[in-house]
Structure formats: structure tokens, C-alpha cells
Amino acid sequence: MKRKIVLSSTVFIITLIAFIWIMFPYDKIAVVAISKIQSTSKVKINYSQVSSGAFSTKISNLEVDDIPVGNVTLHYSPLTFISRSVSVDSVGTINGTAKLSEKHVEVDLDINPAIINSLTKEAEFSGKLALRGEGAPLDMSLTAHIDSDKVGINTPIGKLDFESVSTELTLEKNTLTIVQLTSKDDMALNLNGTIILNMRRPEISVSNIKGRVNVLGTQKNITLKGRLNNIKPSIR
């Protein structure tokens, strides 16, 4: 008799938890969470629709500070409350996956070059633009590697097109450090420096990047200084 009572109680509790988990008002919670993220991070978030369920939340046509991202889906489960981590995938202007927790983030993204090109007129990215990295969200830190098929830079001597551009970078708070940026072509571009990011208006972030480039067999110094929307490249 006691075993039957225990079994019945266990089934009832499991059924109740499952019912609450399935019937929970996820849509409302998701909208509130997005609003809170927007107010605490001081970024503008726009979207057309939020659809939430017991195991995922889809945010359609997401834009962050007017930068289009695409359709973003967050995946979670009852274990999320223990692990405090979620996985994310994005389809649109930014394609890829991410794993997020309070202390760690991993990203593997393919980015439409148009996003970067909208920030400055002096550089143009084309082809594939891939970002792989990891960091700590609470510290606003990130270490990443970026590969780009082609980058064109407007200079006083004309437009220079670089191929197979590889970049190692770190992010600490609002300081983006270009540890090394190189191209695998005859011009052998080699740059390093910093970009002080303006999170509210990325286009006015300030660049201070310098290095060397081979122009027609002659080594030249190259600098990229100023706001991203008004960089004045220099070659000497």
C-alpha cells in the first residue's frame, strides 16, 4: 500500500512538473528578458516576433543597434537551470552557432561582409568572413580569429586589394586589440593596433592601426587612424 502511494505521488509530481514546464508562459518571460537586457546593456534591440516554448525561443528578424543579425534561436532544457548555459544558432546576416553561459562564451560565425562595410567607406570586405572565438561575458573579454577572403583598402595611392586576410584579436571592455593582421599575397600586409569601440555607435569607433605593406616590391609603412566612418589611410 505504501509503495503504491509513493509511486502514485512520484508520478503526480513528475506529471505536475512536466505540465508546468510545458504550459509556462515562455513568450512573456522572453519579452521581459529581452527588455531587461536592452536596458542594462544600453543597446537597442529590435525584432519582429518572439516565439517561445519548453525547449527553445526563436527571435525573428533580430537587429542589435540597427545592425541586422537574422533569426536567432536559443536552445535550452530543464538542465539549463543547473548548467546555466544555452546554445544559440543564427540564420541570416550572421550565420553560425554559439554556446553561452554566465562565465564563458564560444562563437563560430560566418558574417555577411555588408555589416562591416556599413561602418566605414575606406575598407571593403568581400567573400567569406568567418569569426571563431571564446571569452568571458561578465568581463567583456574575447579572444578571436577572423578569416576574410578579400579586403580592399582605399589609400592615397589608390585601392589596394588584399587576399586571404587573417586576423588575431582580443577584446577587453571597449578596447579591441588587433594582435596581428596579415595577408597571404604578394603585398604581405602586416598590421597591429587598437580600435576603441563605441558600443552605441560602432561607426564612430576610433582606429589606431599601423604596420607594413609591400607595394611593387617596396616596403611601405601604412597607418589607419581616425573614426571608422572617416579613416584617413596613409602610406609612406
Q: Major beta sheet, specifics? A: 15 strands, antiparallel
Order of helices and strands: HHEEEEHEEEHEEEEEEEE
Number of strands: 15
Judged by helices, strands and strand pairing, the structural class is: alpha+beta
Give the percentage of residues in beta strands.
over 45%
Number of helical stretches of at least 4 residues = 4
Q: Helical content, roughly?
A: 10-25%
| Average pLDDT taken over every residue | 82
Which overall shape is indicated by the principal axes computed on the Cα atoms?
elongated
Distance between the termini: 91 Å
- What count of structural domains? 2
Describe this protein's structure.
The protein has 236 residues and is an alpha+beta fold. It has 2 domains: 1-101, no CATH class; 107-236. It contains 4 helices and 15 strands. The protein has a 15-stranded antiparallel beta sheet that branches. Mean pLDDT is 82; it is low at 1-23.
